[in-house]
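#structure-requests
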Amino acid sequence: MSKSIFISTLVNGEKINRTFLIYSESKRSIFCAPCYLFGGTTSFATVGFSDWKKGEEKIKRHENSQHHKLCVMNMKERKEVLNRVDQKLKYQVETEINYWKNVLTRVVAVVKSLSSRGMSFRGDDDRFGSVHNGNFMMSLELIAQFDPFLAQHIEKFGNKGKGSTSYLSFNIYEQFISIMADNVIQQMVKEIKEAKYFSISIDSTPDISHVDQLSFIFRYVQKNGCPVERFLGFLPNSGHKSEELADAVFLVLESHGLDINNCRGQSYDNASNMPGRYTGLQARIKKVNPLATFVPCSAHSLNLVGECAVDCCIYASEFFILLQNIYKFFSASTYRWEILQKNLIKTENVSLKKLSDTRWSARSDASISLNKNWIEIINALSFIKDDKTEKSITRSEANGLYLKLDSLETAIMATLWGDILERFNKTSKQLQSVEIDLETVVSLYESLIRYVLDLRSMFDIYEERAINKSGHKTYRKIRKRKRKLTADEKREEETNFKIRDSLRINTYYAIIDKLYSELERRKLCYDEANKKFNFLFQIIKLSPSEVYKKAEVLQNVYKNDLSSSFANECIQFRSYLMSLTENLRPKTIIDVYKMIRTEKLQELFPYVDTALRIYLCCPTSNCSAERPFSALKRVKSYLRSRMTSDRLYRLAILSIESVLTIDMNFNDIINTFAKQNSHRKL
């Protein structure tokens, strides 16, 4: 017997199910249910039909017969008058289903809320009414205070223990965590496959139980034209060597069914095992896919610019050491901190900030705090160094900090670094945005370069500001060290700078020149990655011949992605943009891509759409790979240090991608749960 017997094909090709046919396993025959129940005389109603060779022909003859149609009408009329024989049983089953669905809906709502915020579930015990039963049961008890249905359910099934069904145990919410995490992952993987092109960014950190967790970030462009960066999970103990990291990347891509050949970008921090040109991770991925362009993290590079500038001269290093020592001195004692706060209350200034060990741009807060509280900090140090009740070592330390801080040189350093770090910090935050593109990165670096060059001629201004801040008009005298001369040198030939000139030349200019050279050097790599697509930003300003030549160059790079008609398509796209009025023309490259998607121009400019998608999926920073570390500390805290890797992986997904977690449909989650726990034999 063929399955096609149960389907009727009409003349126009449409198919209709033959619901009147039923199959008997004992007789190995099919019967017509209406004819069998309402006095049919054919073999379909009496002994059954099993002539499969002539089955289709005889079934058509039977279903078109007048007697069969009469039996079908009798069956429908009987159903409308007397309803189904199992109506009460059907109502009972539906009532039972609705009851447990209402229970599970409340359970899923609690699981979504707790997991999306990275909170713990279990407590010391699993009993309702206990103050140590954890966040999950506490949330259900809270809802039950305003929900009579849940309150009645908890009272009836709450603490019955094993052997009774309540759907309130830890085993149930663990299943929901697994189902929801799988749904989020499937949705992200589906979006990546629809976008086709993606880029990767990874970073690692140890968790509270000293397990090294490698985070994976995928960047791609959504259908609406917005680039997004999604967290796809942690991989424990993958190693730190470039070959081990490459194996981990290939393993994750393969496990999710993603093709490495569709990777168009990669971005990591500046550790040697990542961006190494010959044996680093980026080089190993490029061996497999040469089109996976490597872009160093722009935010990390900016931090290194500041670090190199500080290391170039002793005054800059001593300033930040002094800044940290002042914070340590006051924060080490509640009494000293109270003295500082009493001085700050008068002016309502912000308190002292400690330096960041990893982010140089974040030292802006510490520098701004020092500049705002300059007089108050000096007064607090002066009070402590003159306090006879303090220990001598404390007074001595306060006196040393006071002498270093209360000087014109330190005031110049504080004023200069306060301005520089404030600009660097604002730029760094802008570079960490998900929607930023390479063209914007180049523009921001260029603006910093010009800003630093402008500072080179402003020493007199900073000196004047420092004099007003410190109240000192002269520099401290420094004992000159006599350099040992060689046999052919004379002491008269030595060049001796004044203290002001020495500070200006050897410190101020040294800092500015180092910042300039480092910014120029690190900007080159972004220029290199950006120049292939550069003509798309200036397509209106360029002539048609220039657009054609540059488009051909890009097409030769991405031969498998862009057709030979790409250059010709760009010419028409240029004309389309020029036909728009000034206020309707898109301002940024993201706006251009959104316009193509909004106006549904993909069919007209398919390869322009592809080129922009490749460009926008290219990452500019590695910051999104570090953001999961904050969630890791919340999800796997010292109270949850024995959490398994699988559970950490699921909870981290639900917490980091909380937007997708909250948007999940309750019915889909419950239906998946019902299928997994169904005891019916299929």
